[in-house]
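Side project, low priority. Logging it here so it doesn't get lost.
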Amino acid sequence: YPVFLYDLDEKILKSALARIGANLDTFIEHGMIRPKEKKAALERIAVTTHLEEAVSKADFVLEAVPEIMDLKKETFVKLDRFAPFHAILASNTSGLSITQIGSVTQRPEKTIIVHWINPPTIIPVVEIVRGEKTSDETAELCYRLLLKLGKRPVRVLREVPGFLFNRLQMAFWREALYCLENGVATAEDIDNVAKTGYGFRLANLGPLETSDFGGLDTFYRLAQNLFPDLSAAQSPPPVLEKLVQAGKLGVKTGEGFYSYPSAVAKRKIKERDQRLLQQLNLFMSRGKKG
């Protein structure tokens, strides 16, 4: 599809195109696309610093401004003014209400959340979250569009904070932070359990499937014994608060739970993407067989 990429800053647009090119190069390295497909893809992207130019002929608009409700609403007012009335106005918000965001438009039935997971070029799943006034047609069009893009869309049936992905992710992260804060294990071993144990299995069996295979009676007894002792924290623990207050925000600042010199960060990102692409190849081949 022809695409307009919009930002206020030309430098950001230039950087975005470079990242897109690098992502396509990674796909080429793994034999997932051919070099000529990269060229064709880049030629379908037009960049602009003018919002009206970006959306005036659009059928589908995806907003990804920072997670600030007033900013989201301000952006949707402009999108509603500039985009054709038939256009779907989608948000990539990770947890804000599309009912509230869409309320500032003249087309709340055409507003919806289409939430991609990082890195979005690789991760198959995309969440579709309806607002109170989102129409069936809007939701179905988004679902079919994502299927055409090779994604695995999931329908979130109720608009709840965090939707589905982040609710599950945050529940897991809260317990990981609890274990770190209380000296249950080191950061390295917590991550190793996730990567080589729980997460390794999750690539093939979801949590509900896992309990079916393990026996619901067994998991019922585990829940009886463990649920009372799991973290019920309602705010971030001191181990996280101290890092944030010290400006240790992870890869983007060079240090978080681990240290990330520039060369190390670049290497780990490349390794991450290569491993995820290997998983994606397996996922796609398995889907074709099914």
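Brief comment: The chain has three domains: 1-49, 52-162, 165-259.
Revisit when time allows.
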